[in-house]
Amino acid sequence: MEEQGRLLSPGSWTRVNWERLNRLLADNAFQDRYACFDFDDTTSIHGVDSGLLYTQIQHLRFVMGPEEFPRALAAGIPDLERPLGVNQAGEAVSSRQVMEDLTADYTWLFRQLERRDPAELRHTLAFRSFRTKLFWLRKGLEQTFPMEVTYPWCVYLMAGHRPEELYALGRTAVAYSTRPGGYGRVCFHTPAEHPGSSGLLSVEVETGVAFPPEMRDLYRALLANGIQPYIISASPVELVRAANETLRLGLTDRQIFAMRMKQDAGGRYLPEYDHEGPEGKAYPQTFGPGKAQVIRDYLAPLHGGRGPVLVCGDGENDMDMMTGWMACGDTRCGLILNHDRSRQAHPRLWQAAQQAMGDPDGPFLLQGLDKRRGQFRPTQATLP
Fold it and tell me: What's the pLDDT tens digit per position in 224-252?
């Protein structure tokens, strides 16, 4: 094999991380070991799920009819009257208010698409309102409800597509999100002439997605040393598969575990989760404890009952899979991509990051980023 036994290139890894990962590769090569990766903000910088939604909005690639859209918007939200934030006038705004405005804008845009090009519609008041309020709603839900609500909700917005259509949209989203000049941040505002019932809102949105070459090299070095990488992601499974193929990470579909939706009789996705896995096994929602369940029920049995030798993640959502097999010695390293997560929102991750900064030989590694440029830094510290 051409790459057999090769180690990581130095790139912009911190020195200790590069040395520890190379030692892990050498010590575990060709011993039926495996590694687990989160995808959004780990394999990538910025989320591919956000990139998919941004692409979907910019190109108006929604396929649900106006009567179906409100169901997807409300799916899984336990309290539509709970305030998510305030508008420009300081008034509390609930999910229901924003959803009423979004449904009205969506209905108008959907009907206009029968005779007008999406590029033309991007200049309309309805489009600017729709884009702002959909991202505002997503951010408000994330700040108000637990991940058990918000992660599935983002997936349900892709309802109406068939699997092959969502896969094709995923490829378009990866290409659009990685285009030159696409990476950054932008602030969207509700047009003053089109306030709707929720009023004037504004939201900052991350645009574009970067895939650091160091992470892509890590996937390839693992494969070259006979250590199987798996992705366990809270993004739609078709999107992660499309990114894997586009980036040539070298994984098969069986190495990708991500969020799945039920299908109707015509093969179109419904805004409902599909818990039925292969061979009659339950298929968990692939975030938080569900990531650890994937390892326990699907991966460990393929590898002699052992846990992953390496786990890579960036948030509290990844801590169950990162620490679940450390006590028994199976997981040698938990690699944390440093996004400066807060202690309040990510208590276990924050503690692990502090440990990594104080103990270079400990179980956790911390990798710094330049988030403005979507790059690694050869230090543990991150530039916001």
Answer: 999 999 999 999 999 999 999 999 999 99
Radius of gyration of the chain (CA): 21
The lowest-confidence range among 2-11, 15-24, 36-45, 109-118 is 2-11
- Helix count (H) and strand count (E) of the chain? 13, 14
Rounded Cα–Cα distance for residues 122 and 33 (Å)? 49
Residue 32's contacts (CB-CB under 8 Å, 6 or more residues apart) are 226, 303, 304, 306
Cα 91 to chain centroid, rounded: 31
Contact (Cβ atoms closer than 8 angstroms) between residue 214 and residue 374: no
Closest listed residue to residue 3, CA positions, set 216, 212, 223: 223
Residue 2 has pLDDT above 80, yes or no: no
CA angle 17, 20, 25 (to 5 degrees): 120
Separation of alpha carbons 126 and 121, rounded Å: 8
CB-based contact 258:239 (threshold 8 Å): yes
pTM above 0.90, yes or no: yes
- Give the span between the Cα atoms of 147 and 319, in whole angstroms: 14
Over pLDDT 70: what percentage of the chain? 99
Q: Which amino acid is at 369?
A: L
Reading the block at residue 163, the tokens are 């699997």
